[in-house]
Design goal:
- 4 copies of one chain form a homotetramer.
- The radius of gyration of chain A is 19 Å and the shape is elongated.
- Chain A has 200 residues and is mainly α.
- Chain A is 66% helix and 0% strand.
- Chain A has 9 helices and no strands.
- Chain A folds into 2 domains: 10-57, Arc Repressor Mutant, subunit A (Orthogonal Bundle); 69-196, Tetracycline Repressor, domain 2 (Orthogonal Bundle), CATH 1.10.357.
- The longest helix of chain A is centred in the middle third of the chain and has 22 residues, at 59-80.
- Chain A binds chain B through residues 30-35, 111, 114-115, 118-120, 127-128, 151, 153-154, 156-157, 160-161, 163-165, 167-169, 172, 175, 177-178, 180, 184, 187-188, 191-196, and chain B through 30-35, 111, 114-115, 118-120, 127-128, 151, 153-154, 156-157, 160-161, 163-165, 167-169, 172, 175, 177-178, 180, 184, 187-188, 191-196.
- The structure holds a DNA duplex (21 and 21 nucleotides).
DNA sequence: AATGAATGAGAATTCATTCAT
DNA sequence: CATGAATGAATTCTCATTCAT
């Protein structure tokens, strides 16, 4: 079948559309938005330039849809952590490691995200309140506070601190400028935890 | 006088050059690199397009020099903290607040940096080892470890964690999506400190 | 039945072909040739883009055939005036009003014609001598001269003057910039007649 | 000097701008709007493609400005007829012949006009009431009526009839499908006049 | 030093047409 | 017959850069 499932929406995505997503991601990572002409995407994806415009209104739309597409994958990482049955602290550790591992293994996405959120494209994106990823993330910390596990700091602050720590360490290790073994990684999120946790 | 001092190098910068820097910074912040043609910089800076090429070899060079120019200012913030005479913890707090305040008051620079480091431009920039800002930052944490104030975590890790926390909180408060009073800000870097500090 | 008669040729025209003609006419009127892509015609006509190419070799052919198709209708208007049994002057009046009424009620055709004859498409069309409409028109005035009803001015001149007067008044009233009641309309062609008629 | 006067506005027009106007006029006449890419205009005018965009915002603007530019010339023809000192009938004859001669000698403009007014471009143009050419024309006939020289037919009707007669005859003779000597031309506008004139 | 008109390579996008289903 | 995804040449337009003044 010429289709594939994405996220939890069961939306079938044509092979060509996926190929265009994949190529755009890889090329934007390497060359940036501006350095990635549609002709390059087309060539890399093995389709004609015009074909891209069957699937996407414009380059801008392609970029924004790609962001959403990739965002879904990050959301899936957050959602798969079933925190209901394990201690909050362990859940925090899982979340940190889960996201870290995801970004570490998906450098394209990490780099694409960083470019995207700092570009004028992001102006067209949902506000923090409507952003599913951040909604989930903030809710997680909200819960931690209410369960008396975390200090009484705004959940947004905790969420941003956690996420930015994940991103910065993932970029650092991915760039090869620092190598951290699993023990050291544990140290990192443990460090964060000990800062954020309420001390009884 | 038509000159001005920058950094500690005593390099005089012509008014026009400065105007070009300023305009580029503001425009790139709003429109991104790609959305900021040289003609727009020229108009905004009140000079002719050709004039820019008296001061800068190319657009790429202008962008890179602007990065260095702005970087100098961040370095100045780090350098002005005289940590020799105060306790390390207080110095950490000063550094965090100093950088936070700088970025908070210089949104243009913050946004420009974020765009820059995630773009292909940054490929042309010095490696972490040769980057004066990071050298200073890492040295600071190195000292903290050697003084037995910080946990034995790689200084790079500590530096990146600290810097990313500053950037993410500055972006968050600057965007207006979160408002933190000075007490809450203190909480944030205190949180970080308590995670990183060696507990005797 | 899925067919219909057109003109006097008894050529059956498939519903789809007619729908394509109709859509093209309406869309070209509004958007011009260039502003009317085949995909738009297809959508408007409720057929697939490829289907148009079953009926028409190319866009150019479609346009030219549409011109002929519409031309038939104008010819029908001219032919239905049976001038053999009524005075020439009355026949002139009927012809003027017949064509005026037709164009007035068929703005699409009027606008399409005007665009067509002034475009490079018309280069591919029959010369004046081979154009049935003009042949009929010129013959009419030829007869008027021979019957000593009209001044000795070239029939072509009289034909063009008459036709252009009809078109310009139809465009003017259709545009809503001028409103003429039936008496005023009569005045107009009476005016023309009194200019062209031989005064005995 | 690198300038030239246009109309009565004394607006200097750069040589290149004029060359672009001239080329566009000639090329549009022959190939139509759609058949005249900007690259063709550039080549024909001896300028780079980008240069056109120094003078004109877009192709559409170029076309519209060209229309106005050419319109000025037609207006000049109308304005140069000083009707105050000669009989109205003679003035009508002069006007008819003046415009006829202008269009006859400026086929490019005639063809361009016809294409323009029947295209979607004309939608962007001033309404009849604000159109200087038609304002002048209608005022002329208004005067004829008030001076008791013309029948009591709406000036707009008379104006459109007259102008359309000029255009159709100019097209006919220019196409070579009809040849009219000066006597015959006189016959044509005399014919019109006798239709429109009030018979005392 | 400064100007800004001119350049032209390159980018995004369109659309007539084809063809496998 | 009918479809509409796919094609890719052609088009409009942008913009970094140059250079005569």
């Amino acid at each position: 079948m010429n289709i594939q499932l994405v996220g939890t929406y069961m939306e079938p995505i044509a092979d060509k559309k996926k190929a265009i997503f994949k190529s755009t991601m890889e090329l934007v990572r390497e060359h940036g938005f501006h350095g990635t002409p549609m002709s390059m995407v087309a060539k890399h994806a093995g389709v004609a330039a015009g074909t891209i415009y069957h699937y996407f209104e414009s380059k801008d739309k392609l970029i924004c849809e790609l962001f959403n597409y990739a965002q879904q994958q990050v959301i899936a990482v957050v959602e798969q952590e079933d925190c209901a049955t394990i201690p909050f602290k362990a859940c925090f550790a899982n979340l940190w490691m889960g996201l870290y591992t995801f970004y570490r293994n998906n450098q394209d996405i990490l780099r694409f995200f960083e470019q995207f959120v700092n570009s004028p494209y992001s102006a067209a994106m949902p506000r923090l309140e409507e952003d599913k990823f951040y909604t989930l993330l903030f809710a997680f910390f909200e819960r931690g506070i209410q369960e008396d596990q975390l200090r009484e700091v705004s959940p947004r602050t905790l969420g941003m601190l956690t996420h930015s720590s994940i991103l910065s360490i993932a970029k650092l290790t991915a760039s090869g400028r620092l190598s951290l073994d699993s023990k050291e990684l544990e140290q990192v999120h443990e460090l964060l935890w000990s800062g954020m946790a309420r001390h009884h």
